[in-house]
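ok here's the first one, seq then struct tokens
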Amino acid sequence: MLQPTIVSRIIDDGVMEGDLYTVLRLGGLMLAVTGFGAVCAVIRCVISSKVSQQFGADLRLDLFAKINKYSIAALGSTETAGLITRMTNDTSQLVNFTNSIMRVFVRAPALLIGAIIMTVLLNPRLALILVVVVPVIALLMYISLKVTLPMFTKMQAALDKNNSVIREYLSGVRVVKAYNTFDQEVERFDGTNTDLVAISTKAQRTVGVFFPIISFTVNMGLVVTLWMARGWIADSTMQVGQIVAFLNYMTQISMALRMIFMVYQNFIRAKASAERVAEILQEEDISQELGEVYAVPEGFNNSIRFNNVTFSYPGGGEPALKDISFTLPTGETLGVIGSTGAGKTSLVQLIPGFYMPGRGEVFIGNNSTTELDPDILRSAIAYVAQQNTIFYGTIADNIRMGKADATQEELEAAAKAAGAYEFISAYPDGFNTIVGQKGVNLSGGQKQRIGIARALVRKAPILILDDCVSAVDVETEANIMKSIRQISPAPTCVMITQRISSVMNLRHILVLENGQVAGFGNHEHLMANCEIYREMVAVK
């Protein structure tokens, strides 16, 4: 803000008067001011970059922590690709806005206001031009916000859809290749990609229209100034240096407005992203606060009891479970069988509290799952899902998800019990063998056995096996179940299976049909009293 005034004095007091000393003295002062400004600019950029990047890191961590607290129902109703976009692209928009606003938030308004004040002090008549220019620019910026904000919101939604198609293709690439539907996938991606390009182009084009209009308004102010200055200089009511200084101040005002408008553009896009990020942070359907997993207290009663449980998935519809009641004593094994869609997986997902019953209660010992801290409840349960998830990393890392501090001996014991030790040891790197995302370099049976080893190394009082041995042969399954029965103290085990031979020797067998209990008891009791069970035995 000092430089135009210094230039004005150099012209009027130095050049016009032929005073070389004044020119050199004021020129040196202007150089010193410029150097000081350059040092401040470097410091500003370093601080803004560091702070904005740390803000981005903190925001991503907060989002990840919040998503970790989502209930299973909330996760099921939220598109995964949308969550990923919010944690990556939307967060990046906020980081960019933070960085830009830190660099110019003080500088641009101060430059704008200061230049206006200096112009008034320089010559009030010249300042009258700003009374027209500045309000017009403010109006244009307001119109820009109203017009472009909905466009950027739609653009981020289009990016969600595009990412969703990419994610689904990469997740199901084997199915695509097996059915040779690559052309259909290309067409599907081309559709979402074209939509993204269209809405992005429209948004950027709309923003691009306002920038030259604002520049035109400022430049018209300069033209009017030059036209009016012609007469003022002619009648000696204004000096040349003042006109030059005013033009410099107008240039500073133009530069400040450009910077503010650029930040404004970032703000428009960041506002759309902030609203999407806020949807995650404001989600109320969350599990109770989870702390670090700790050991289950001694004497933990690991019996399981369902008391008139009825359950429907979020969104309504026919209940997945209807009036389910049974008791499984401590240390016993329950075999759950039934046709596809009978409600077997729905039943076991109520035990760790992934969902809560709509009516009735699930008891672990003497405590309802609605009363137990999820930390205590889930630290007492080892769960092997129907679709085993293998994460990128070593085999040891995947098994240690069941027990982070498991020793090598414990890893080997769990692998042997799960029937996985033989194929793991066949790898050159053994337990340190790297497996790809979702275990792409493992067979279905190998993934299931690693998942079982992950559960067994936990040594939890309750073990849930959700049809997790379907990809192994009968002999391997028998060996796995034998190893589980040899665990001391014996866990309370709930095993879903499609094989009658796996449950025939159990004391507790639960037969489900259409979400209801069709039979409960041992093999002999069910053969005598459950027609559905007899049909299953007949076709085994």
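and now the second one, same deal
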Amino acid sequence: MTLTDPFWLILLIPWAMSLWLWRMPSRLLLVLRSMGLAALFLALCGVSVVLPGRSGTVVLVADRSLSMPPDSAALEKEAADLVYAAMPPGDKLAVVSFAETAAVEQSPQASRFAGFSAEVGRDASRMADAFDLALSLIGKDESGRILLLSDGQWTGRDVAAPAARAAAAGVAIDYRAIERSAAGDLAVERFQAPESVLPGESFMITAWISSPIGQRIAYELRRGGRRISQGTTAVPSGTSRLLFRDTAGQSGSSEYVLEVKGEGEDPVPGNNRARLLVGTMGAKPLLCVHPGKASALPGLLAKGGLNLESKAAAECQWTLEELGGYSAVLLENTSANLIGHVGMENLSAWVAKSGGGLMLTGGRDGYGSGGYFKSPIEPILPVSMELRREHRKLSLAIVVVLDRSGSMAMRTPDGRAKMDLADLATAEVLNMLGPMDQFGCIAVDSAPHEIVPLSDVVDKEPMRRKILQIDSLGGGIFIYEALVAGARMIAPAKAGTRHIILFADASDSEHPEDWATVVGSCAKAGITVSVVGLGTERDCDAGLLKDIARRGRGQCMFTENSQELPRLFAQDTCVVARSAFIDEATAVRPSGGMISIRQQPLDAFPRIGGYNLCYLRPSANLALVTQDEYRAPVLASWQAGLGRSLCYTGEADGKYTGAVAGWKGAGDFFASLARWTAGKAQGLGPGIVATQELRNGVCRVELHLDPARSPTPFARLPQLTTLCARPGERAVARTTRMSWSSPDCLLAEIPLAGSETILNSVEVPGIGQTALSPICLPYSPEWVPRKPGQGAAALERLAKATGGSQRLNLSDVWQELPRKPRYAAMAPTLLLIAIALLLLEVFERRTGLLQIAVKSSLRRRFARSPRRTDTPRAVPDRQDRAAQSLPASAPPASERPRPEKPAVTSKISDENREDALSQARQRARRRMERS
């Protein structure tokens, strides 16, 4: 037994004094009071009893990063099986894996490990996070041990802090080193250049090459997609240097990529290629994106004095590296399909989080007709593109035919099945229709299944519930059956426009049979057919799907990203409804909002040849509006997060430009729109400078203040917004509050992982914001070259610090698992006992029944006890003992006179009885007064 708070024992002194000063009226009350106070004191002292130790837990921590050998997953699974096979009864095994993140693969339990399944990434080694997670799986009162399977390389937080917590908790960290071979590893050890340069400035690029042997290597340096240096050179064993020179462009950001190759086979090719980004200071140009055909708009903007760069949509990468080099992006009648889902997500995040600008012009490939409805770009636009019933000219009947074959059960990266996203896309089509329209839905595998019969869109909710319940049931989609079922359902429709949307897998469309006859019959009946293919145009059945759409006079759209399905279905519905684009010459009038975009107001504006029908969002600025029945916005703008967004719904250059094409002020007008979108030159004003530096895989952003300033120029701490993205992935925004690192400098640190690029933007409250140049690591930190045995030495130091050791025989880990004694706190039980004794004491004071019961029990016990039947041994009385002590000359006892015995009265006198009753009454009265 232990006492956690023994100082409460000092209360024993006043307790003993109280019992002596205020005596209890009876022994029973004294016992109850003493026991209750004793229980209370022991509870305050935190009495705990020691119990036998329970089972222990071993947590196996497995490294799954890129730095591990190719067969490391199989080796780690085999190690887990060996540990499980040697596990004693009652003990438990848990498994944690880590790379970019840490995850629990198996919680503590007595079962065999099934294998690694968690998505932890591979571009980092967050070992500290794995230790924190492993310690959380070991109970507070349990014994535990951590078995680490790793190459000894970690990134992110230092492992010293979690290792110290493990040592303090008595949890040792054992290890087994699993390292890749580093023999013959040629690597780009460092790749350096200035973070930013002035336009036209020449600068040096330095590469440090690590070679295990002297050899001749080949190298190639590219800027963007253009080679600027190439050759071969001899390098000695160890580290040597390559120098390059280049001249900065006018503005923007340039990506440099260096590749080296040795004479033999390289065991770690990941560090043979390195990249860096160099920003050019100064005003950034505007990027004008066109669909691929020549346009006069870039020439008009250049005449207006704008610094711009013109590209076809197919030439754009839509990465942070590329977007960070521009002040704004102009999309001239460019379809959303040419940008892609990831590109639109990056573009939207760049505008809202990094302060970029976005301008859209209209046409047949813009806005709703171009697929921007329900796209990632739509939320940042000042106009919306929904179909409103009051502006519909013709009724519409649509039948959606869905592929629900086995391939649709596959999961997307966000955990949803492809079938679920197809259901949502179909429901989006239903949402766009109104009471004047008709809708039907069919799900097809090896046979068609009617989900929603063709009916008027009056009550959408029952239809929606049926659509969202469609599941993948296996098999493949039978194209002929799907087309026949769709044609039969839509044939009786009376709507002015009848349309079929066929959704199919581009690599799993079976049994086409005589599909051409079915589609031809639909075309003759005025029924159009569009196809949305899940896959690419290179898939085996993509040609079939294209032919179906061509013969059906509809669209054919492909996507590998199932998250784009709702947007593609909505785009096709907009095109079919034919109310998304007005192809008639329309008069336009300026409004008061024009003055906020250009300094000179417009008295009149030429007629436009057509426009995309959109609707102004609340709080958006309206500058041009049509004078037809729709009163639709032609020019609208607003602030989109940190950036700006502007929409011109007319066509800038093309068939539907109208009288604007011959207007003398067209160049100045469009140049003013682009200039407003790009915004003012970013900066934080005098006395404040923002810098960034890459150090040990961490980007350090510093905000330097003038030491001679008067007060601090801002009331709240500046904020750093960081966009992070890997190649081919969407950008993710993170916000960091900067902190003081010195009296004149604020600092924020952003760790980089793997191949990701980050784009930082500093916002100073009350002053402004500025976007810094993009920055990246040369390659994943997992590919950093290391010396042989370096990882094993790091693991040995970690194990020694926690009392662990290297485990060559993994089953021995159970033999050294400590058995911790358990301490059970008795305070709650003692408090309950104290309360019960207090209640008994109060009960006794009020009634006295406990004392009566105790006396009655004792009386009955003595009354039932048996009498002794054996003759007791004669004990001489006092007189006999006195006689024995007399001298020999004394007379015998028989001759001495006996003393007279007092008379024994058999009854108590009346006077004594009165005294006894009086005393009893007095005791009872005192007892009542005290209670």
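notes on #2: The longest helix spans residues 827-847. The radius of gyration is 44 Å.
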